[in-house]
Amino acid sequence: MKRVREHRDALVRRLPALQIAVAAAFVAVVGSYWFVQVVQGDYYLVLAENNRLKEIPVEAARGLVFDNDSRLLVENVPSYNLLIEVSRSSDVEKSLEFAAGILDRPKSELADVLERHRSAVRFRAVLVAEDLTLSEVAKFSASALEHPEFEIDVSHLRLYRFGHIAAHALGHLGQVSEADLRRSESPYRAGDLVGKSGVEQSYDLDLKGDDGKRVVIVDSRGRLLEEHDEESAVVGDDLALALSVELQQEAARFFEGKTGAAVALDPRTGKVLALLSSPSYDPNLFSRRLDQEAWRQLVDDPRHPLQNRAIQNAYPPGSVFKIVMAIAGLSEKMVAPHHRVFCPGSTKIYNRRFRCWKRGGHGWMDLRSALRESCDVYFYHLGKRLGIDPIARYSRLLGFGRPTGLDVAGEKSGLVPDAEWSLERRGTPWYPGETISVAIGQGPILVTPMQLASAVATVANGGFRIAPRLVDSQSPAEIESLPLDPKVLEFVRQALWGVVNEQGTGARARVPGLDVAGKTGTAQVVAQKTWIESEDLPAAQRDHAWFASFAPVDDPRLVVVVFVENGGKGSTSAAPLAKQLYEIYFRDFLELRRPA
Amino acid sequence: MRSTSGTFSSFGGLPEESAALRHLARVRWGLLVAALLLSLVGLATVHSASSEMGIDYLPRQALWVALGMVVFLVAFSVDHQILTKFAWPIYLTGVALLILVLFVGQEAGGSQSWLGIGSYRVQPSEFAKISTALMLARYLAGVNRRYLRLPQIAIVVLIVCVPMALVALSPDLGGAAMFLPMAGGMLVVAGIRWRFVVAGTITVVLLGTGLWHFVMLDYQKDRVMTFLSPDRDPLGAGYQLQQSKIAVGSGQLAGRGYQQGTQSQLRFLPARHTDFIFAVLAEEWGFLGVVTVLGLYAAYIFNGARVAGRARDREGVLLVAGLLAGFTFHVIYNTSMVVGLVPITGIPLPFLSYGGSFTLANFIIAGLILGIDFRRFVNR
Description:
The complex is a heterodimer. By secondary structure, chain A is an alpha+beta fold. Chain A folds into 3 domains: 2-39; 55-240, Penicillin-binding protein 2a (Domain 2); 246-278 and 311-593, 3-Layer(aba) Sandwich (Beta-lactamase), CATH 3.40.710.10. The N and C termini of chain A lie far apart (145 Å). Chain A contains 24 helices and 21 strands. Chain B is mainly α. In chain B, strands 1-2-3 form a 3-stranded antiparallel β-sheet, with helices on one face. In chain B, helix 6 (124-141) packs antiparallel against helix 7 and helix 14 runs parallel beside helix 16. The longest helix of chain B is centred in the C-terminal third of the chain and has 34 residues, at 277-310. Mean pLDDT of chain B is 83; it is low at 1-12 and 230-234. At the A-B interface, helix 1, helix 2 and helix 3 of A face helix 9, helix 12, helix 14 and helix 15 of B.
């Protein structure tokens, strides 16, 4: 008995050590809970709240866009989108099969869309199809119980009522870029559709409005249990444009099958009444998030329909540059209006022969007739007398070589060459012979149609630089008075009236009852040694046709610049559109003037 | 070593009734009080945890607790010396059940460890642990040495490894691991030299490495890896750990209120009525609730330790020590797992977690411990 007792005592003596170990373990556990609950409790409480509360963004409707006659150009229409939340689907393949059946589309197409959003699918609903018909929506709603993974979301689809007619002016939407998202204070969320060009881009912050949100309480499966908080969306501001749908439509009709650009603006205010670039595209294609194929086709199109040729491409101005030459020559007193030059059809300057466009020559020309007939020889001599630097100075004064300040992003500066530019950029000195080419708008000089319209507006309004703008805002336009002699401008205006109305090169733009003034231009694409008719050349080598104009000459209210890429002669290819636009714009005025 | 009392009445062999009543009054009833209070807390928490589940587990668990009190009385009434006398058949029955479950068992939670009896299911591994404890107590009680010798340790290892391997095969690694603290506790009490402890640890580590590479299933490895870096897979096992910590932490000092915990009520917390029930409690009752419940567990364990300390026979001391060691390990591991200290594995919390077999087993353990206390003057 005693032996047993001893052995039992031996066992019991070892118990306290175990008890101490257990007590220590309890202290450690209590300490851990104290740390997580009391020390870090606030942090975990926030995590718990984030778990529980889900923010559902409420998309604000974008502002509407109207033309100058309050015609609706851009609106929003409701669109039903199909989303899938993969985590709620028991079998994704079956779900896709079901959706494909209703939508009558191949399953692989939906699977591809899902595949593109691989990283996101585990956490949120992913857009698989857009713009469902009401009957498709009804079918998905009817099967909501068997297929809880599908959600129908009503969103706004941007609708451009006039399609390609004003695509470049209005712009289009696209998903916000990573770069925009990363900018500090970016008002955008990933996946937002934002303006990518035109006024949609430049006025995006006004148009977009403020998205609202619903805060709802959800369970771990994302099921909505109750509303917690709501912040309603604020609709974006509407935009009234100076643009005239009528002029825009007319210009679009004219440019069907042609490449080029047209700009019409009010020289007194800078309001842009027409801005057309051809070929154009349908901005509606970009309103959807999924239609990647159409986008790719546009980007790959060799004619670059997305490019806004009125502001993003610069071309040699050709003979319309003679307007600048005349202003420079008169202002610098290098030429007087009555100064005469004999044109035999070509002339030799710096030991090189420069040809006039008219093989037989113009005979005796003064400044006014040289502008009217667009005599090259007269301007060769004027160019030689002026030299490149004054020509460059007056070009810049009239707005060439830098963006006009149009309220649309992406404007090109063009190029105004001078001696300094030549040394810096080409590493060679300026050759005097090049000045002779620049004098008739050839050589390295490049201008955008919008720059030319802006320069013509300055001539028309008596020497003011006005930043052109598409939006018809109430605030006064940016106006800068330029150091130009009003008498010089008056002379040039009258000479340009002659171009159109006195059997000059711009006769095709004549509108009976309206004093149109303008200048044609035919810019060579390839230098030619002989007199070859442009029409005989292959399309890509044909001359660019220009026509820069304003009306009426005594009180200019509209500037029209037409540019036809590889269009041939400005007198025949570009001037007719100007005439059509003037006839529309001044219709009421012309009605009054018409004899009863 | 055999009981001096020759008669075995239905009440476990008592010399006279008045003495029996006297002894009854001296039993450490604190252990039973703690067990019942914990069961009540468990019922309330199971109800809260399952209120969004479609099935309220409260009535079922209440039935298990009621049955638990019955098996407590049975276990309390049976003399543990009779049980150790029949340790061999009891142990072999346990092993047989474990083999049976491998063939006809029902699957749940990734392991085939349930036997269906009518519409109820029982988990033989819970009872195999008790039968193994009886077997170990019987064997170790018979070893009259200050310290165990290597062959004796080998026999102990063999006794433990047979049922443990069968549980691991089902496969239920968490359940299998629970044999170790029980056997370890008994070995320490029975007397083991440090060098054997060190050698045993090394063996376990080597075996563990072997298991990792050749035996463990991917989901099991996944859980361990997730414990080592919780951000690895936010929607898998790491999700469970993260949601559990959020539940615990958001309870803060005083808790979010009964049935007010968003983590459990909105179903973010997985296995919230079973393995993670302590997270529900921590969320709803806060640190104060955690300390209270841990206090009840401490009361149970230290009452039990007192029983071990005053048991008069080697079987009693060993059996109480082993059962308590297993119980304590469950409590410490589960509460540590919930707060993110140790890897997630299917180890429930005694008296709180929903589960029939486990609840019954714990009431049997409580009955055995208090029965040993009751007979301390008889069995010596």
